[in-house]
Amino acid sequence: MQIMNGMPPYIAEKMKKHILLIEQDKVIANQIILNLQTLNVRISHCTHLACANLQLAQDNIDLIIMERQLPDGDGIWLCQKINIDANPTPCMLLTTYSSEADIVLGLDSGADDYITKPFRALELRARVNALLRRSINEGHSFDLLEYNGIQINKQTREVMVLEQVLTLTAREFDLLVYLATYPKQVFSRVQLLEAVWGYSYSGYEHTVNTHINRLRSKLLKQPGCSDLVETVWGVGYKFSPPVNLPFNQQ
Length: 250
Prior knowledge:
single chain, 250 residues, alpha/beta, four-stranded antiparallel sheet
């Protein structure tokens, strides 16, 4: 058996990041697969949502790249389904739906990124690489952030407010972690886009606004959390730790 980098080839292959590509057009799918080969990843390809559901149940997937228009349904449905999980798989929509309303719908449904066709190969590769590097401030120190009744666990990707789980999408969690790691520090939309999403392209700052609004809408439902993420007008956003959360009476 040939040994590669001190390990058998099948083990080395298993250690690669695993991407699930859901695209009904086989020509486009092949183009995407060829384009992403330089990232040293494994790619599984499905043409239907049914196949994708089976693949997700059987394998550990690190990233989903998905067209919306599929033979057995809209990819938006899968985005919504994935984001119910405690540790949702990052999802990129790569689709022909290009209107602003469609982009907002995709992001609101839990997609972590949205690219319209025809896409640019270098941009696609950069964004995929950014999503695969989605763990922010990786390391074993400071895995737990605690602020007066709020716990943010980076390892388990869970947020607890007064011992109650706050369900966030993968991108909402990353955004909250980044802001909470630097309490009271103000970040512009461009800075957040580059730090949390991993890229900075003019015109995509609205993505930050969308995710901030979604994050806030969930925080508003929690006692004492309405002002955790503050707007600094003309500058950006900051995390303001609560002084004290009210006792949770049940």
